[in-house]
Here is the input.
Amino acid sequence: MRSGVIHFAFLIALLSGNTCSQAQDAAARKAAVDLNNRGLRLLESGQAQAAEPVLKDALRLSERGFGANHKNTGVIAQSVGSSLYRQSKSAEAIPYLQRSIRIAEAAGDQVNAGQALDSLGLCQFDLKDYSAAAETFRKSLPLQMKTRGRIWDGRTRLNLGRSLVKVGKFAEAVDHLDQAYSILKDFPDAIREGQTAMASHELAVALEEMGEHERSEEWFRTALKVRESVWGTDSFGYNVTLQNLGRVLQRRGEFDEAADCCRRAWQFFQHSREAGPGDSQTLSAASTLCDALISLRRFSEAEELLTKETADLSGKKLSDDQHIALGAALRRKSILQLETGHPAEAAETITESLEVLKKPPAVPMLS
Here is the structure.
């Protein structure tokens, strides 16, 4: 017990700068390594919040013992960034990861550069800076197979592909996502962690955007099978894919199956912890279901559905995603009112839709 107290007091002295010898610089190096290892163990056990202060202490000690631009300091800076990312503090993580990348590149450390670039790309994606994420993953990709192996090549291609989908570069996204799926399907860890399902789902999305609806349907069905095998049908990811499959079936003229897929997804989202009534995902599923019902000329059912979904949000403060989903739902409602011979009501609904979409977002968007 006493040795632990002495060790703690010694660390306090090091961190405060009250040291005066080369021996204590060596002690700072050892303490930095020990604290980094302790922080990494906490990260591996899912304790990112507890790991953060430990790793920040390790970084300060590494700066003292190894130097601000030493390779080990860069490695620890990446660990700090990882602890912040895992707490959804992506904006705070980015400077640490950028520092880690600069140090690794200067030292010719391709392993740490690749790891830090991947983590930086995930932070940028999390912050919806998709163009930056795509460029970061593109820079990271050549390092993955060389330094981390085939599975990491697949994971980085997946992240690059889904970033490209977000910025509308669908043909390039299809190429990377197809390769990602071909790689990741051979790794049980990638299947269990949902990466194989994500690759097939995002590939289907890109193909749908390119108008290749037959191929898109095939890949959504592949994603459904993988997600059912891993998480079952009563899972959020499965039902997101189910809704998207319904949308593609609608576009292919398979209205009955489209309505069935969308109804099942909508009913799940209504009672899901991740969504619930009024959530943007629930609204989106309701709108897609409405499209199929209109195609089947089941107008009264479609009108009842949209009236219920949109009324729940009247006058409430909405998130950015809810604004978009509600605007889309109201546009469909106006189409339905025109179809059923109520042009005056349709005009009012269109005006309401425009008002919803004119409202400023709750959170400033990244430029």
